[in-house]
């Protein structure tokens, strides 16, 4: 992937992951969780966004998972 595609993708991940982490942490604190638990919730939300983005933007190899013969 070229630099012109990597930089906007990274920026988009940060723009989405950071508010998701902050929102998850804030909701955990409002629910009565302690600071370590809220931090854990925020980290989990951030990791989820990053993992989802990596899965969506990954280019599958030709023939893998598209060919029913490979499913055995």
Report on the structure:
With about 70 residues, the protein is mainly α. It has one domain. Helices cover about 70% and strands about 0% of the residues. The chain has 2 helices and no strands. Helix 1 packs antiparallel against helix 2. The chain starts with a helix and ends in a 15-residue tail after the last helix.
Describe the structure concisely:
The protein is an all-alpha fold. It contains 2 helices and no strands. It has one domain.
Strand content: under 5%
**Which H/E pattern describes the elements?**
HH
Number of helices: 2
Task: Give the quaternary arrangement of the chains.
Answer: single chain
Estimate the mean pLDDT confidence: 82
The biggest beta sheet, please?
none
Low-confidence stretches: none
Show the helix and strand layout:
Blueprint: H1 3-30, H2 35-57
Which key phrases capture this entry?
mainly alpha, 2 helices, 72 residues
